[in-house]
Amino acid sequence: MSIKDLSTTIAARANSDPSESWTAKLLANPDKAAEKFGEEAVEAIIEATKGDKTRLTSEAADVVYHLLVMCAAHGVTLDDIEAELTKRTSQSGLTEKANR
Predict the structure, then answer these.
(1) Is residue 59 a contact partner of residue 67, using CB atoms and an 8 Å limit?
(2) Among 48, 51, 67, 76, whose Cα sits 20 to 30 Å from the Cα of 59?
(3) DSSP string spanning 57-97?
(4) Residue 74: burial class (beta carbons within 10 Å; 0-12, 13-18, 19+)
């Protein structure tokens, strides 16, 4: 599944019953969505330090999913994120960071 497909699926689940959809449940509670993203990010960091590629891959997938859900819960779409990334390609990462 592509990240775009995942984003589309997340948007479609916004109208689902939160008692039947984990995604809908998180979208209905932006604070919980943010908490889950943080938990998954920490788990990915732990796996990265262990050097287990399979576990890191699994946790990275969880991070991407929970990042998109958290953003959607706050009205930020994948298109918004892609537009921001596009703006940043016109300058070096070091310049962009210095300008924040």
Answers:
(1) no
(2) 76
(3) HHHHHHHHHHHHHHHHHTT--HHHHHHHHHHHTTS-HHHHH
(4) exposed
Overall pTM > 0.70: yes
For residue 27, count other CB atoms closer than 10 A to its CB: 23
Return the domain boundaries, the chain.
3-98
Residue 53 token pair: 């590629």
Contacts of 73 (CB under 8 A, 6+ apart): 26, 27, 29, 30, 33, 34
pLDDT tens digits for 33-89?
A: 999 999 999 999 999 999 999 999 999 999 999 999 999 999 999 999 999 999 888
**Third-level CATH fold of 3-98:** Helix Hairpins (1.10.287)
Query: 36 is written with which tokens?
Result: 């889950």
